[in-house]
């Protein structure tokens, strides 16, 4: 469970990183990616932050997007230090948030099961 301070810093980082990534990064690997920060989790010692992102590119290009963000980590940390009043700016580790993709897969499976159940009801003959 996160402390109040961790939650507050996570929210600050989430807001600021969202703005910085959308407006300040000009890496060609992120062109057309529409990267959005979905979640930031800060470690208890406030020295590390796990940044979960989503993007509009196919999942085969996850590595490319993550590489571009890792390359920009120094710039992002410097900008965070300038924009936020934090004693220590946490090290950033970027990860693709798979929640939405998994949710779509579960929905598709449930829809398939529902369709199968519906077709089973219409083809079965009463005794």
Number of domains: 1
- CATH superfamily grouping: K homology (KH) domain
The percentage of residues in β strands lies in: 15-25%
As laid out across the biggest beta sheet, the strand order is 1-2-3
Q: Give the oligomeric state of the chains in this entry, treating copies of one chain as homo and distinct chains as hetero.
A: single chain
Average predicted local confidence, pLDDT:
90
Q: How many strands, which pairing sense, and closed or not: the largest β-sheet?
A: 3 strands, mixed
User: What CATH architecture do you see?
Assistant: 2-Layer Sandwich
Structure notes:
The chain has 127 residues and is of the alpha+beta class. It has one domain (4-97): GMP Synthetase, Chain A, domain 3. Helix content is 52%, strand content 16%. It contains four helices and three strands, in the order H-E-E-H-H-E-H. The protein has a three-stranded mixed sheet with strand order 1-2-3. The radius of gyration is 20 Å and the shape is globular. The mean pLDDT is 90.
Could you provide a short overview of the structure?
The protein contains four helices and three strands. By secondary structure, the protein is an alpha+beta fold.
Keyword list:
GMP Synthetase, Chain A, domain 3; 3 strands; 4 helices; alpha+beta; globular; 127 residues; three-stranded mixed β-sheet
Strand and helix map with partners:
Elements: H1 4-23, E1 36-42, E2 48-54, H2 62-71, H3 73-83, E3 91-96, H4 99-123
Parallel strand pairs: 2-3
Antiparallel strand pairs: 1-2
């Amino acid at each position: 469970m996160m402390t109040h301070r961790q939650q507050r810093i996570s929210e600050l980082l989430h807001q600021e990183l969202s703005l910085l990534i959308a407006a300040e990064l000009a890496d060609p690997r992120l062109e057309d990616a529409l990267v959005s920060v979905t979640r930031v989790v800060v470690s208890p010692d406030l020295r590390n932050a796990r940044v979960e992102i989503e993007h509009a590119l196919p999942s085969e290009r996850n590595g490319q997007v993550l590489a571009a963000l890792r390359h920009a980590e120094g710039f992002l940390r410097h900008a965070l230090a300038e924009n936020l009043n934090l004693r220590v700016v946490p090290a950033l580790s970027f990860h693709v948030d798979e929640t939405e993709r998994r949710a779509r897969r579960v929905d598709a499976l449930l829809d398939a099961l529902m369709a199968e159940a519906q077709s089973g009801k219409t083809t079965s003959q009463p005794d």
